[in-house]
Specification:
The chain is α/β, with parallel strands linked by helices. Helices cover 37% and strands 16% of the residues. It binds S-adenosylmethionine.
Amino acid sequence: MSTHEYRGLGDIIVTARPFDEYLAMFDLQPADLSTATALDCPAGASGFAAGARAIGCEVTACDPVYAGMTSHGELVARARQDTAFGNQYVADTPDTYVWGFFRDLDDHLSRRMAAVDAFDRDRLANPDRYVAGSLPHLPFSDDAFDLVLSSHLLFVYPDHFDAQAHLDGVLELARVASGEVRMFPLVDTTTRPWPGLEDLRRALAAHGHGTEVRHVPYEFIRNGDAMLAIDGSG
Ligand SMILES: C[S@@+](CC[C@H](N)C(=O)[O-])C[C@H]1O[C@@H](n2cnc3c(N)ncnc32)[C@H](O)[C@@H]1O
C-alpha cells in the first residue's frame, strides 16, 4: 500500500464501459479484432467481450468479481449500482472530466448502463468465456491471447497497488499475451499521471518487454489520453 495523499474514487468499482469506448481507449478498429484472440482483464461488467464476439473475435473476459457473487443477477445489480455511483462521482467532480466522447451526464449514464445490458446478455449466453481471476495470477497459459487489454485498474487506483504490485500485474498480463498488452489510462481518478511509470517501463525492459506510450483518440478523465503498449511474451 503506498502512503501518498490520494483523494480519488476510493474503492475499486465494477464499471461497464461499452465496446465503442474500448475501441477509442485502445485505438482499435473492428478489423484489428475480427480474427484475433483477446483478453479483457479486468473486464468488470463491460461490453467489450459482447461487441468483440459479435465481430468474430475469440474473446475472454476475466475479473475477480465473477467469483465473488452468488449469482449472475447479483453481479448485474452490483454493476448497475456502481455505474450509478460512478456517474454521481463524475457529477460531483466536474473539473476532472472532459466532454466529447460523452455528450453529458445523461449520455454517460445511459451508454454505461447499456454496456451492463450487453454484458448481461453475453455472459448468460457464453458463461465459460467469463473467467474469475485476479492479478497477479491469471488462470491462463503462456501466450494464450493475441491481444490483452487492461483498463481502469493499474495506474488508476494507486492507493490499492504499490510499484511492485504494478510490475507483477503487468508481467502477468504480458505472460498471457503472445502479441501486445494495452493498458489505459495512465492517470488516476484525480487526473494525476501515475508517478511510477518510467521506473515501471525500465523494469519491464529489464524483463525483455519493450513498451511504448501512445496517444489515443479518446479522453474522458482529464489528461487520460494515452495508453501503455507492452510487447507480450510471444
Ligand atoms: C473500474 S473496473 C474496470 C473494468 C473495465 N475494464 C472498465 O474499464 O470498465 C475495475 C475492476 O477491477 C477488478 N479488480 C480488482 N482487483 C483486481 C485484481 N487484483 N486483478 C484483476 N482485477 C481486479 C474489479 O473487480 C473491477 O471489476
